[in-house]
Design a protein that fits this description.
10 helices; ligase; six-stranded parallel beta sheet; Pantoate_ligase_C; Pantoate--beta-alanine Ligase, Chain: A,domain 2; three-stranded antiparallel beta sheet; about 35% helix; alpha/beta; about 325 residues
Length: about 325
């Protein structure tokens, strides 16, 4: 007989801490944690599956973090699909004996008890910056983004106290920031980074894909195709035992994306996989993070959706 499991919905920090204490009391020593901002898709579900496989208990958070948004960014426009998200979790994992145990859905006041202003100059209270790996790449156009990520992840880890925490490789810079955060603040949580989940045509799964028409989803597959073109060039030179010029890899990637005149390349960058220092040469054995951000037309709109993707060279 299949045992149906319905996750607890926790709304307060106190409730999560009580839940975590009960996990210890019930001799469930390992807790996996998947933090999300909702609008769940197959990529999130793959993180949850990994947590269920490797932990005694699993908790998810759904929280649209305001400190990641600048004043000019429309926080209110971010998709909030809580009922749909909870139903997806129930439908996907509810029939499992070891299903999702809890979903943390806090109000902003629970996470930011001193309040939160989107204007950094007006903010008060404690915030976390991981210097050296938040200023480049995504940090150029969104300078407060990773400060907000580091702050909320620190808070959530302090609340949940997970054994393992799970992220997707698609958000590569975020993963580097969090790995350094956990290392430097001596946090006893293991950061697990899972491969990017992709649609059949190679497009990285993202909540932002819902803004695209079917045609644009097909055309946007060229982003991953371009990255793979750069990877193939790197592998061909690497076989000769030589360092590979980053500029030559970029020369292989850029024209593939630029072949679609409706696409606007924000950046293509090659960086050290741990420090995010920009590289002149890619050294086999050290490798590199090759990442890009591309703006593509939204469906029935004059605006563009901003898609990010990356690959790791080894």
């Amino acid at each position: 007989m299949t045992i149906s499991k319905t996750p607890e919905i926790l709304r307060t920090v106190a409730q999560v801490r009580q839940w975590r204490q009960s996990s210890l009391s019930a001799n469930s020593p390992t807790v996996g944690f998947v933090p999300t901002m909702g609008a769940l898709h197959a990529g999130h579900l793959s993180l949850i599956r990994s947590s269920l496989q490797h932990n005694d208990r699993t908790i998810i958070s759904i929280f649209v973090n305001p400190s990641q948004f600048a004043p000019h960014e429309d926080l209110d426009a971010y998709p909030r699909t809580l009922d749909t998200d909870l139903q997806l979790i129930r439908d996907t994992f509810g029939g499992l004996a070891r299903g999702v145990d809890a979903v943390f859905v806090p109000k902003i006041s629970e996470i930011y008890p001193s309040g939160i202003n989107l204007d950094v100059s007006q903010q008060r209270g404690a915030f976390v910056s991981v210097l050296g790996c938040l200023e480049q790449l995504e940090g150029v156009t969104r300078p407060q983004f990773f400060r907000g990520v580091a702050t909320v992840v620190t808070k959530l880890i302090n609340v949940v106290m997970p054994t393992n925490i799970y992220f997707g490789q698609k958000d590569a810079q975020q993963c580097v920031v969090i790995k350094n955060l956990v290392k430097d603040l001596l946090i006893p949580t293991r950061v697990n980074v899972l491969p990017t989940l992709r649609e059949l045509n190679g497009l990285a799964m993202s909540s932002r894909n819902k803004y695209l028409s079917d045609d644009m989803r097909l055309r946007s597959a060229v982003i991953y195709k371009a990255l793979r073109t750069g990877e193939e060039y790197y592998e061909s030179v690497k076989e000769k035992g030589e360092k590979v010029k980053a500029s030559e890899i970029l020369e292989k990637i850029r024209p593939v994306i630029a072949s679609d005149k409706d696409f606007e390349i924000e950046y293509i960058s090659i960086n050290h996989p741990e420090t995010l220092d920009e590289l002149e040469f890619v050294e086999p054995g050290v490798g590199a993070l090759v990442s890009t951000a591309v703006k593509v037309p939204k469906e029935n709109s004059n605006e563009k959706a901003r898609l990010i993707d990356n690959i790791i060279l080894h």
